[in-house]
Amino acid sequence: QVQLVESGGGLVQAGGSLRLSCVASGNIFSIRTMGWFRQPPGKQRELVATITLGGTTNSADSVKGRFTVSRDNAKNTVYLQMNSLKPEDTAVYYCNARVLSTLRDRYMDYWGKGTLVTVSS
Fold first, then answer.
1. How many angstroms separate the CA atoms of 112 and 78, rounded?
2. Is pLDDT above 90 for 12?
3. 3-state secondary structure of 87
4. What does the pLDDT look like over 58-90, one tens digit per residue?
């Protein structure tokens, strides 16, 4: 039906930058919200940042001023620009999208498989 594929993770030194991308594909009619969550080692998954179809963003206090979420609606793609990375940003980053599929009559949440971001001190 709907697939989300992340890219852009990797190893970076503290203070460095990375840009994550996530492309949604499949039987998509509309995508309401796209965004990023992360799961640090041994911890629960947490919100990083989201962006609505109209461009309204929401982000965790821990990343404000450092991370920027954006999207390209024509490409069904969401990005996460991460600057001034810290070791505590180390986590598996998951893409999320609330999608109205052409095969269903309501919006549903879909998740990518995740991409690992490791920040060394």
1. 12
2. yes
3. helix
4. 999 999 999 999 999 999 999 999 999 999 999
- For residue 55, give the 3-state DSSP assignment: coil
The Cα 26–Cα 56 span in angstroms is 24
**Local confidence band at 11 (pLDDT 50, 70, 90 cut-offs):** very high
Burial of 96: CB neighbours in 10 Å, binned 0-12, 13-18, 19+: buried
Strands 115-120 and 46-52: unpaired
Contacts of 55 (CB under 8 A, 6+ apart): 71
Task: Evaluate whether 3 touches 113 at the Cβ level (below 8 Å).
Answer: no
The token duo for 40 is: 């640090």
CA distances, 40 to each of 17, 97, 114 (Å): 18, 20, 12
Residue 62 Ramachandran class (φ > 0 left, ψ -120 to 50 alpha, else beta): alpha
